[in-house]
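Chapter summary example: a protein plus D-malate.
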Amino acid sequence: MSRFDPAVFAAIVGEPHVVTDADAARRFLTDWTGRRTGRADAVIRPRSTGEVAAVLTACRGRGIAVVPQGGNTGLVGGSVPADGDRPTIVLSTERMTDVGTPDPVEMCVGVQAGATVAAIEAAATSVGAHFAVDLASRDSATAGGIVATNAGGVHVVRHGGTRAQVLGIEAVLADGSVLRRWNPLRKDNVGYDLPGLLAGSEGTLAVITGVLFALVERPGQTAVAMVAIDSIDEVFALVAAVRTAGLTVEAVELMTKAGVRLVVESGSRPALAGESAFQVLLEVSGAEPAQRLADVLDTVGVADAVVEDGPARALWELREKHTEVIARASATVPVKLDVAIPRRGMGGFVAELDVWAPSEPYPCRPIVFGHAADGNLHVNLLDIPDEEQSAAAELMLAKVVERGGSVSAEHGVGRDKAAWLERVRDSADVAAMRAIKHAWDPEGLLNPGVLFV
Ligand code: FAD
Ligand code: MLT
Ligand code: ZN
């Protein structure tokens, strides 16, 4: 008999925010990729930190597992419950969307965990500043989610990832206590970096209820180029030339012919007349950026390029539509690998992929794209039969590890890659992480099955 009693949670969050109806709960129980559907006794939708604390206290006393969920755009199966019979709730932050008043002097803004990336950027813009994290899921991805996954996005090359933007955090621990570090100081070395620990914790250590984010200067004038290149190595020569010209690099996004073709076939306007093995989208800032970027491209001598004044949304669309068109184009849920490869090895890795894919004992269409300056490639293997998918992922990730890469660059480990943790971290490392997990969540209630198998 489940220890879950809806009345207990209705007394905390209000009856309408204890979702037990199967149809109403559906959108919370299947992840964005469609690969995973889990089971929960209810979806609980608190409005405040106090309510989250009361919910966790009630869960702890009843051994009920808690899956924190923000925008449910995660791509590694960490945001939905397992399909088991353990008493479980999904704790959704979708009602916790307050955005505080941005502070132009301290250059920061405090938000509730359920505030979207787009809402945070809108607040930053209102004081002439900018939120450094940007990603195509900006309208749904939330403050709690990007911190919990330590999300990257397109401006890591300029500002670093989400962890680098966290000044303060408020979170509810498994015992219902509230951890709050909330000051705009850029230097505060008193004790362990608990906000930094919660970044990348994927809902396994605490429920983040608020984040104090740093804001950065708006980049001023920008220009965006789409450049045809024949080899990945050309990317880094281009980036060096742009920097030597005194321009600031804001984004470097790599695409392949196959990916661009899919996006164009979906209706987007192609940027360049011909097809090249690769295209790279370069976003830069500085004085007269478009003219200077065009001059750099002339000097370097590229096969083809187009340069537009920022924001150049049509050029960005060619990059940002990759995820959705790939999901639609694949006959099966695509195997999505989010890997980091040492920059010098990226070309060889992608070349090997083109040899490997057709020779495997199953149909496979590889489409690669990603944040090239970070060494971060998104390797999507399309059309692989379900029963062959884990073998394909296994083979691919083994190649990444062989090349000194990471099996998870920015999406986190989730459930999808939990089996790889002990393959890529040594026993002392895993033991230290398990010790932290046990100290923070001794009953293993927070997102069981995520990060650790
Ligand atoms: P969810 O998916 O709801 O949850 C993700 C993880 O965080 C889960 O483990 C969950 O338990 C945990 N979590 C969520 N909220 C909390 C909380 N309040 N407290 C504790 N744990 C919590 N990712 C990138 O890094 N870079 C990209 O460029 C990028 N682009 C994307 C483009 C598209 C079209 C899509 C669909 C996804 C993309 N993603 C990208 C992946 C995804 O958007 C990020 O992982 C994002 O951080 C997830 O945020 P979310 O609010 O949707 O979190
Ligand atoms: C992106 O960069 O678009 C994302 O990380 C999503 C993906 O990998 O599909
Ligand atoms: Zn990405």
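Key point: The chain has a mean pLDDT of 96.
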